[in-house]
Amino acid sequence: MSQSTKTDLTNRRLNRRALVGGAAAAATASSLGVAASPVYSAPMLNFRQGPIVLEFWGGEPEESGPGDLVAAFNESHPDIQARYTRYVNDDTGNTQLDTALQGGTPIDVYQSYGIPRTSQRIQAGAALDLTPYIEADQEISDWLGTISAFTYEDTYYSLPTVKDLTLMIVNQQLIEDAGVTLPESWTIDEFRELAKELTGDFAYGTYAPPDIATQLLGPNRWYKEGATESNFDDPAFRQNLELHRGMIDDGSAFPWTDVLARNLRVYQQNLFLTGQVALWPSGSWVLRYVNDTEEFPHDFVTTFTSVPVPADATDPWDLGTIDNNILINPTTEYPDAAWEFLRFRLVDGAYTYLKAGKEPAFPGTPVEDVVAGILGENREELYDVEAYTRLISQTDVRIPTDTITVASAQIQQIYQQESDRYLIGEVELDECLASIKEQADQAIAEASA
Description:
The structure is a single chain. By secondary structure, this protein is of the alpha/beta class. It is 45% helix and 12% strand. The protein folds into two domains: 3-164 and 321-365, Periplasmic binding protein-like II (D-Maltodextrin-Binding Protein, domain 2, 3-Layer(aba) Sandwich), CATH 3.40.190.10; 166-318 and 379-448, D-Maltodextrin-Binding Protein, domain 2 (3-Layer(aba) Sandwich), CATH 3.40.190.10. The chain is built from 20 helices and nine strands. The strands form two sheets. A five-stranded mixed beta sheet has the order 2-1-3-9-4. Strands 6-7-5-8 form a four-stranded mixed beta sheet. α5 (115-123) runs antiparallel to α19 (408-423) and α16 crosses α18.
């Protein structure tokens, strides 16, 4: 983003600040039964002990956006200073965050990734109702009317900061060496055939196929209507797992035994950037690894195409998300200041996360700035810039956002554990699906009791 653009955004934000902040403070005090923060209510008495300090937790390395965000916010808000703490966005790191939230560790604002974990934290009482602030902020309210942001029981406890479309990320050198043409739109069957052609002595066609169940069923795919029973007997789940196992068996998808043994679900970039897989369905956030040529040296150009879809899908869903939700801890002493920081992350400070591959969910960042920020300074050498620009400029993509979250964190874990067993050949498909459904139904019943 250009310096002039950042200056314009900052000026626009500061001009609104007094009006939005004052209204939000009054609304929050009324609805929550707490005194309004002195940030707005008593300016003559503010900060006798120095500026407010906000503790902000997130899952990205500090150098991948949070550091710049905090620096930009602190410079424009001398009366409120933020500090960043990172937790690793894996099972261990998320347990660390949950323990800190429930144990009273000072946390004012935090990022949460994925609806199952976000809803679990809301249910645990670790999120402030944002309704008063949203109602007092016309710009945010209008924006939320245009997207499928996650709500819990029809209430906003979080706001999404990132729009992450799924792309097919491709090793262009392996495509050229195989003498094949990369299609701009294609079916799952065509994808499977191309993956076979790209498989050789040292490379597999793909890391894994796209998630057909999500493409066909979209949001709330885990549940039948009414959410009293799971939906894992839908044929889409069988089709999805059968495709993946079939591609592993014919050698065109990476062996799942190695994925589990080497924790490659978390480190998929290692396979792509060492030329071990040619096709990699993923989001823009992984491109920060492509940009890091010191840690991941490679001599091929990364290109892109659309994700293949089932031939019988009439209006398939994208595999991406509107996510990276940001929440305010209800135990914060400074809810108004915390909202000020949350809003800055969402709007004026969104550009700071471009180098982490995070496209802003809030509109207004020019596409050329998004492309430059995500692909980096060496984009002409590292990427097919035209292909990437074309894909992220799409406006007709349907991104699913779940609205049902009954036992969703447990179901996510059940599905992963049981599908892992199937993909490594430990159980057959009928047993796998029956086990997923039985355990998911039980989790739903227990959560609904």
